[in-house]
Specification:
By secondary structure, the protein is of the alpha/beta class. The protein contains 15 helices and twelve strands. It has a seven-stranded mixed beta sheet with strand order 7-6-8-9-10-11-12, sandwiched between helices. It has a five-stranded parallel beta sheet with strand order 2-3-4-1-5, with helices on both faces. The chain is globular and about 70 Å long. The protein folds into two domains: 135 residues, Rossmann fold; 258 residues, no CATH class. Strand 10, helix 14 and strand 11 form a beta-alpha-beta unit. 40% of the residues are buried. Helix content is 41%, strand content 17%. InterPro entries: AAA_14, DUF4143, P-loop_NTPase.
Length: 406
């Protein structure tokens, strides 16, 4: 299955001077993406986990003219366009940023660089960002309803109206959006895949690249977060459950975020004197792990919204952020999407069309001046209508809503 990222990132590599960094969860499809782009552009692919590739990379650090890797890439050859090289999981090399900085500074005119990784690749070095101005960062997400069902129009904020694939939403609910279990749609395979992925993430990826003294306790925290999807994070409660300090819980959740296991959604409090300001809500990148049906539905919508705000921001369409709304007197709406630091979209998630519109949608829209306020209903059939044309809160079928996103 070709992802919509492929053509767009390939065009970026051809037209922009900057390197491209693509990060995202383990097994979301980054390696397949890199290999597809390399194949189409007749480039070279190197994986840090491959011993021979790792040797070539390390040899090229000190030898910038005769290194085997640079000869394979062809940076010293006369070409019609820049040579392309893709580095997979290079972030596992402790000096990866300086390595790429050196390549870019020496061969900016001859070399297009794509680097992928299953941990965050947008973190600054202490003392400043040595890669400032040298890269664009894209975050790769699991499959979404739109990506499965219809083509993506680049440079367009909201996608055109299109009917979704008839079975896609149910498949996404049951098997999540990671390509392999989604495409197989087999419960036994899914169960085995999930167990193995969790072990590899915690006991290999995180353990091998970070100093965590008790990795088993971190695994327990990951399980607790799975049970608390959509809930406000209580650091002290989690600390008592695992018998570690609050600071340790904060650090471990940040670590799980950096490896794309979970993400926090912070409260919006600008122009709301009574709004909560500190406690975030937690969601999983793989919503299929959430057992409670209502919480899973909310997590699925959260993940689709996060994919949209990341793509819109990474693609240069503005600065978009995902928040939630809650006041001290218990007024609440599930999600707020801000555009350039202004409220733009309010989203409330409900299961049944018989449930009335959340009155807080009206209240928050009046208070904040958000352009759109939608109550997304999970068990409501698709309607071929533009939900973003309504100026006031309206019930929207989930498929109608999700098909307008990426």
């Amino acid at each position: 299955m070709e992802r919509f990222y492929t053509d767009i990132l390939q065009n970026e590599l051809l037209t922009q001077r900057q390197m491209l960094f693509v990060s995202g969860p383990r097994q979301v499809g980054k390696t397949t993406l890199a290999k597809a782009i390399v194949e189409q552009q007749h480039g070279q692919y190197y994986n840090w986990d491959n011993r021979q590739h790792r040797q070539w990379i390390l040899q090229s650090v000190s030898n910038t003219t005769d290194a085997e890797l640079l000869n394979q890439i062809g940076v010293h050859e006369l070409r019609e366009q820049r040579a392309l090289v893709a580095f997979d999981e290079l972030h596992k090399y402790k000096d990866w940023k300086n390595y790429l900085k050196g390549l870019f500074d020496l061969y900016e005119q001859q070399l297009a660089v794509l680097a992928t990784g299953s941990a965050r690749m947008d973190i600054f070095r202490k003392g400043g960002d040595s890669l400032m101005g040298r890269y664009f960062h894209y975050r790769m997400h699991p499959l979404s309803l739109r990506e499965i069902s219809a083509p993506h129009t680049a440079g367009q904020l909201l996608q055109d109206l299109q009917r979704p694939d008839s079975s896609a939403l149910e498949q996404l609910r049951n098997f999540g959006g990671f390509p392999e279990p989604f495409l197989k749609a087999d419960t036994r395979f899914y169960n085995r895949w999930q167990q193995l992925r969790q072990q590899q993430l915690i006991f290999e990826d995180i353990r091998d690249t970070n100093t965590v003294q008790d990795i088993a306790h971190l695994d327990v925290l990951a399980t607790l977060l799975r049970e608390q999807s959509g809930q406000v994070v209580r650091y002290s409660t989690l600390a008592n459950q695992i018998n570690v300090s609050v600071d340790t819980i904060r650090r471990w959740i940040t670590l799980l975020e950096s490896f794309y296991y979970a993400f926090r959604v912070t409260p919006w409090f600008q122009n709301l004197a009574s709004a909560l300001r500190k406690e975030p809500k937690i969601y999983l990148w793989d919503w299929s792990q959430v057992k409670d049906t209502g919480a899973r539905h909310e997590n699925l919508i959260a993940s689709h919204l996060l994919k949209a705000v990341h793509w819109w921001t990474d693609h240069g369409l503005g600065d978009y952020q995902l928040h939630y709304l809650r006041t001290k007197d218990q007024k609440e709406v599930d999600f707020l999407v801000s555009r350039n630091n202004q409220p733009w979209l309010l989203v409330e998630v409900k299961s049944s069309p018989s449930q009335p519109i959340n009155k807080n949608l009206h209240w928050f829209q009046e208070q904040l001046g958000a352009e759109h306020a939608l109550q997304v209903v999970m068990d409501m059939p698709y309607v071929e209508a533009d939900c973003f044309a309504a100026g006031k809160p309206v019930k929207v079928p989930v498929e109608t809503f999700l098909m307008r996103l990426v």
